User: What shape does this take?
Amino acid sequence: MDDPFPFLSWDRTAPPPVYVTTLGAFEVYIGLQPADWKCGTGTQQLRRMLSYLIARRGRPVQREVLTEIAGGRSDRPGHVVSNLLRLLKKQWGMEAALGERGQAILLLPHPTWKTDTDFLVDRYNQAQEALQREQYARSLTLLQQAETLCQGRYLPSYDARPDYSIEGERGSWCHMQKQVLEQQVRLCLELGEPSYHEQALRVVGRLIDFDPGNPASYELGAVVARCCHNETLAREYERKAREIEQEELFS
Assistant: This one.
């Protein structure tokens, strides 16, 4: 991610005390500085457990599940979980965001921490509201801000055993990013100015990168390329769309 804090340039948006990037890279920042992970447990174990809690935000996760996700061997298997909680409470100041129900732990939405996906959803929702009011320039600005957060795979470093997969969440956030990009492309086309068409061509390329197996993305790319008077690229996109459709037909 080129700029982990794009929201700093947005009006009336203050950085949260703890900020977590989850799209394209998993990093934690405290006061805009990289977090200190040192607390007596291996960093990879802590990152793995925290990734799972973030993916399951608001839902209880059993301590024994977190222990299994952490992996490794220990005479005190619950020790790694205790270290994680100490990290969140003592070092990062996220105690108010933690809930405990018996042997289960919840990481709750709270002003003490936010993720890039929080900002992504906020900007996308505001863009929808602006569209409904026919505030097209404002909607495009909000979508452009959301685009800066569309950085790829959700929690890409999470590598726990298949029993504790987050593929469902990964699919949801991939879909969300594609929605942002596609709507930005379509709005640029509707606005009609050549400069907007050039923006649409750039963004549709990103959309195709997110969804290279979807012929509809290439078909949209062909429309945009023709608006930019690039017939060669338009035909290439159409050829690729037909190729994918044929592969699907005979698969």
Remarks:
- The chain has nine helices and seven strands.
